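Late entry, iron/sulfur cluster complex.
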Amino acid sequence: MSHAQDRIGAWIGWAFFADLAKALALTFGYMFSKPVTMQYPDKEKWLPYSRYRGHHFLKRDDEGEIKCVACELCARICPCDCIEVVPYEDEKGKRHPAKFEIDTARCLFCGLCEDACPADAIALGQQYEFSSFSSRELVIGRDDLLAKPGKAATGGSVVAARLNVEPKVLVETGGRQGYNWWRNIRRR
Ligand code: SF4
Ligand code: SF4
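Prediction complete; structure with ligand written out below:
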């Protein structure tokens, strides 16, 4: 197309406000389309995929004993140096963690501790709501880690939720998930 034709086209565009009409059509199109905003957290919540790396949890064996043998491998491999393990030996010579703490304020959720653990004792679950105004509260001890929810079998979807005024239960879901995952993770 020649330069003169370009100019004529531009003038015709101006004359009929073609660009303006296009922009307004886009704007009105969005105004009347279905909103995609998630009503978090009072109406909807995101259930992460099962491979999501959220809050850590410690596992128990079939007898209900903590699986961790306090080998400290997780603490050694952690790039943030945010795991502290203090071992003790019981009367049978078995090692257990007398102290097991993770500073989740420093953790980058890389999952190396889970990969390194020879006893399959620690993993990163799907809980992602654990912010706090106090960094001290983000240092999580052994008993709290044992009480944390594990990995959910399903995920990757938005589930219905509603705010709850019961103490310590801020949000619960209304959708069918097999078990009330959100209620579980909000209980401490
Ligand atoms: S997820 Fe990574 S940074 Fe966090 S505690 Fe485990 S090894 Fe350390
Ligand atoms: S969680 Fe695993 S790697 Fe860490 S101290 Fe316990 S047994 Fe060792």
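Residues 18-31 form the longest helix (14 residues). Will revisit in the morning.
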